[in-house]
Each structure stands twice: as structure tokens, then as C-alpha cells.
């Protein structure tokens, strides 16, 4: 029990509560007036809306054009790829025997296996570099008048060959080979030797051959050299063309006509007369025909006078003569389109021909007839 004294207890009165009057005015306090500022963004007018819509339409139109162009380019690439790749030949499976089975008494003949040694005809084939037309013959027996008994066929020899391609995709159009008559080889050889060695040398040394090769590949010098050689009345030659895909005469003709027209515009003094214009008309009329299937042979011949002859193998009647053009400027212009200038129809063929004629200058005149090797 605690012994501390207790505090005295006292009673205190609470203060009387004060009641606020209902209608007692509330004192004013400083309040910040909230005012809404008027919007300063200008409302677009009709002209601005029209321009905005036109900009959006142009944007969507450009996207549509780009998408369509990409789609078309993709389809073209797919088509080019699909048509450029050669499919393997179909394999032939064994079929059921149509005749009754052989009896035990039936004679059986065992054939020897085929010889792997190539035939002489196969040894005379030159690879072209494409699987569509894999080979070209090394020699072509040709006579401008095959029905004549007084003009025998000559074995024209291959100088060089190449593939004609178009566009940046290098689409193959045809394989071409340039052939020369054996009797024309000494004349061609003499012309080249006189050009490279005017002192009358019978053969060329290494630096002279390099100089001659550079001249034959030079755009300006090659034009002069081959033009002079082709105007020699003793040079006879052929251009053999075999398409690698189905084409037509108009397509082939248009390429030659463009080349002849461009050459005539550069040299109006030589090609600006009416006779050349009429010769161009005759040349166009020769090719006013239909299609040329893949693998068919087209020959362009050039005789001693420069007359152009056109021969076509239709697959039924053999090689048939379509016609000729007497003006030598037509055939010379076509030949120069393959041999000379800055933009030849086939750079591969031009270089192959140059390599072929360089073999002529390695031997004395007259010793290479019948000995051209590729």
C-alpha cells in the first residue's frame, strides 16, 4: 500500500460552447482567380487541308509505284532465271516388253560396249561455252552456188567464235562463228604482216605480234584495219549464227540495221548516197519473215566482190538461200559490227578472232592453209 499523500480533488467548470450562427458571414480569403486562356492554335483553313490531302495522296501513290516496280522487277528476274537455265533431258525408263517373253531356245545376241574413242567428226567440233549450243564445227563445206558443178565446195575454216548477249543480265541470244575460205588465208596473212612489219618480214617477232594484237583490239585502229582487209577482193568469209533461244528474223535484222545506221551517220560521205539507201531496203526485205527456232543455222556469206548472201536451214529442206545484196558496204558493215569499233556485238567473238588471226603471223605466208587450230 502506497504511503504517498493523495492530491486533493477539485471540480472545474468547462467553458460554455460557442455556436456559430448559420448566417454568420465567412471571412474572405485571398483566392487566386482561375481564368482560362484562349487557345492560340490557329485553325487550318480549307487550302491547307487540301494541300495536306494532296501530299498524303502523292505519298501513297509513290509507295504504290515503288511496290509495283519492285514486283515487276522480281517477276522479270524470275522469268529470266527460269528461261536461262537449261533443264536436263528427260530420262527414258524401261517399258514393258510388247512381244511375248523369249523362250530358252531363242538366240540372244550380246553387243559389244560402245567405244569411248571419239569419231573424227567429233574431234572437229569446237566447244562454244554454252550448253544450249555446245559445239561449232571447225570447218564448213560451202559453195555460193551449190547446184553448180563448176564451183566445188570449199571447207571454210573457223577463225573464232563467241556468244551474243544483250542487256545487263547478259541474256544469250545466239552463238556466232566467223569462217574464212582456205584460199583467202594467204591474202589475209599478207595483209596482217604488211601492217605489222612494213619491211617485208615473213613472220613476226614477239613485240611485233603484241603491237598487232593491240591494234586489232583498239576501237579506232581496228576499224581502219578490218575495213581495209574486207575491201580486198580476194577475201571470202562466212558468219554462222545459231540462236540459243527462239527468236525471229525481225529481231535479228533490227540489230544489224541499227549498227549499219549508226555507221552511216558517222561517215555520211561514204554511206550517204541513194544507192546505199536502196541496198538497206533490199537487206530489210530479206528478213521479212517469221520465227527462227532455237538451234537453226543462219549463214551470212561474203564473196570476193563483197556481195552478201543469206542462207537459212529450216529443218525440212536443208540450207536454202534467202537472197543476196550486191552492195559490199552492207556486208562490210555487218562484219565490222563483230570485228571492229568500241561496241562490238560480241566482245568474246572479237577476241577469239584476234587470237585466231595471230596464229597466221607465226608462220610464213601460205604455210597455214588448212592448219588453223583453235
CA radius of gyration is 45 Å
Report low-confidence residues grouped into runs of 5 or more. 112-118
Mean pLDDT: 78
How many strand segments?
11
What percent of the residues sit in helical stretches (DSSP H or I)? 25-40%
> For the report, how would you describe the main beta sheet?
7 strands, antiparallel
Work out the strand percent. Answer: 15-25%
What is the strand arrangement across the widest sheet? 3-4-5-6-9-10-11
Instruction: Determine the CATH topology of the domain at 122-362.
Output: Chalcone isomerase
Assembly state (oligomeric) = single chain
First-last Cα distance: 140 Å
Entry keywords:
10 helices, alpha+beta, Chalcone isomerase, elongated, single chain, 374 residues
Description of the structure:
It comes from Botryotinia fuckeliana (strain B05.10) (Noble rot fungus). It holds the Pfam family Chalcone_2. Residues 89-153 are annotated as: Disordered. This is Chalcone isomerase domain-containing protein. With 374 residues, the protein is α+β, with helices and mostly antiparallel strands. It has a domain at 122-362: Chalcone isomerase (3-Layer(bba) Sandwich). Helices cover 37% and strands 17% of the residues. The chain is built from ten helices and eleven strands. It has helices at 46-84, 120-123, 185-196, 206-217, 219-230, 249-266, 268-271, 274-286, 328-339, 347-358, and strands at 125-127, 135-137, 139-142, 154-166, 171-180, 237-243, 247-248, 291-292, 298-302, 308-313, 319-325. The strands form three sheets. A seven-stranded antiparallel sheet has the order 3-4-5-6-9-10-11. The protein has a two-stranded antiparallel ribbon with strand order 1-2. A two-stranded antiparallel sheet has the order 7-8. Strand 1 and strand 2 (135-137) form a beta hairpin. It is elongated. Mean pLDDT is 78; it is low at 112-118.
